[in-house]
Amino acid sequence: MAIDRRKIVLYGAAAVLRLVLFGAFPSLPDLLTGRVEISTPVTSFKRLQEGLFLYTHGVSPYDGGVFYQAPLFLPLFGLIPTSIFSITTPLLYVLLDILCADALVRVADSCESTRSRLFASPRKDIKWDSIAVAAAYLFNPLTIATCVGRPTSVFTNCAILFAVIKAIDREYLNAMLALALASYLSLYPALLFPPLLLLCHDRHKSNSKHETKTYSFLAVCMASYFGAVGSLLYMSYYITGESWEFVSSTYGVQLLLPDLTPNVGLWWYFFIEMFDSFREFFLGVFWLHLGGYVGGLCIRVRKQPLFVITAMLGIFAVFKPYPSISDTSLYFALLPLYRHVFPLMRYTFFTVATLLYATLLGPAFYYLWIYAGSGNANFFYAITLVWSLGLSLIVADSLFAVLRDEWEVERPEMKGKDVRQI
Q: pTM higher than 0.85 for the full model?
């Protein structure tokens, strides 16, 4: 098997950079772990450490309303000896980033983004090399900050990418298992089940060697996914001392939003100001808004299920209850796969400027509010609205570009002509 030297150099450079940040700046990981842009109540490494301490001392980690993460993290990190915990955890997170990058390389090499079973883009030759796609992920400042900050969302991101590449490789059982793990860890990846099922179905149909009926294939995939989720929940039941307490503490927190710690999302401030009598109604509205995109995208962009997954990841980064820059980094990891539609996007400069503006001013506004005392919550929430605006524009603009690309295949005489909305 030939060894790709470019991969070795890229992965080695990315690993060295991260290890240097961990080693040369010992206070940096704890600093980033405390940042609300990186850590949320459901992904914080500090909260994981507190839960792990309670777990190793025979106390339920879900007592006290501090630990909201999946129970399987407890035995995983509990296996690491205390004496080498501070050394092993950076290596674990660096390894997860490398695994994510390798999955991206394989997704890019598959050309699924430019040529699916039902659609081949006329611009399919305009693309970035797979190594460039992986480099854009590994050296993205958001990815690096996430790695050093050590939120548990990195595990979810890795599981999602593995689900995608396994679906493309026609390893459907592994794809369902990976998505089940992601759904178990963070809940919201369950919304990726329909587009991933479409991706598995398309890859299955494109392989003429298999003659399995569609209904049988879908039934097997669905049984694998729900069976894996059920098995993980049952394992968690035994890990927590034969108690289902973790269900309300892990998934109920994301559904009902009892912890209103500030983050880069839209929910926390809105529900701080919300009257209790309207809370249940708007929780339903917000979740309906988040989940409502899945069906529409699966129907309208049926020919490109990988783009549906990409667009949903961008929507998650804006509208999920507890978003962080980790979600944004995952969306930005898959977006370069659609380099061929970048020329069709209309608001690139404005979007990039908006995101840079929010990235620079976000920490400053948070400092003015929390530390300097010269601002209030409106300062930070205003800049998170700008951040969400920038991400929303990218998602909408990329969707327009993909639909325009499909339309020009159906109407080749309209290629290069302006489109006006009437």
A: yes
